[in-house]
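Database export, one record per block. Field names are fixed; values are copied verbatim from the stored entry.
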Amino acid sequence: MSDEGYEMEYVHSAFETNWIAPLGPNVDAFEKELAEKVGIKHAAAMISGTAAIHLALKAVGVGKDDIVLCPSLTFSATANPIIYQNATPIFIDSDLKSWNMDPVKVEEAFSKYGSKIKAVIVVHLYGFSADLDPILEICDKYNVPIIEDAAESLGAYYKGRHTGSIGKYGIFSFNGNKIITTSGGGMLISNDEERIQKARYWSTQSRDPERHYQHSELGFNYRMSNVLAGIGRGQLKVLEQRVSKKKYINDYYKRELQNLDGVEFMPVSSWNEPNFWLSVITVNHHIKPIDIMLELEAASIESRPIWKPMHMQPFFQKYEMFGGSVSEKLFASGVCLPSDTKMTDAALERVCKIIKGLWM
């Protein structure tokens, strides 16, 4: 939570006014404030980013046997909602210049499947934006909507525009590990007011505006509570501070570790103003990522591998993959370093000292 305690003002308000349910002044205000922050017209607060992706897919009409393109190098929450809609995911490799969805592979998939593709989900990995323009150009040619999974990239920019605000729909996550958190929660955003209103309807069990309980469509229990929305309002006040600290952490690691033989950092492309959600390195050396993780673990410091690509996951490996070598290489060589915004210089120095000790 923020050092300033901004969140408590809104949480106390929720308790004092007895607005505890998944509706109320904090929910309405959080939607409005988040939309204004990222330069979009409409937003709907959900219980998770996964729920927001699910309703985005539903909003664009994805259904049984449709194809949705999805990057392989991502967390499973990006791909799971495709299955919820009884659609078929097809996975797309990353490119080395961004680690994000490769436009060349996107074009290959469209060349093969054309009108069978109903949506493209683009992920902004670890807070670094994908190169959207060439993907948008391909999707516009085929009249296919883009859903931006900006779960990790709130506060990041693509060519001066907030990630999440550029596609037909954008989603954010406020899970406990994200740059701002509501404990659990997410947001669906769009300039399409009618579709956002429809998503709110679906997210409240598709309850019709009748005196009695009436449901004309399948509904979901996806709406964010007024208490958690209050936390989100307070967290939103410190977003810029968080981005600044994340950049400081990445710069610190880079200064201390980039000269180690075989170590490379996630690239910052010309179009990209990241939020540096995680500081990530690849290691191509006789020292392996597992060596780093175990050495840190021995000192009670947690680090993690890069996401295991979806096409390598037991559940998803039956689905088609365009490419694969890049995401596989990144997974095999990558380490996510401790990146919490509460880290002190002493903590950062300790991490770096342990890592550099492996090269001595």
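Remark 1: Residues 9 and 180 are 17 Å apart (CA to CA).
Remark 2: The domain at 240-357 is CATH 3.90.1150.10 (Aspartate Aminotransferase, domain 1).
End of record.
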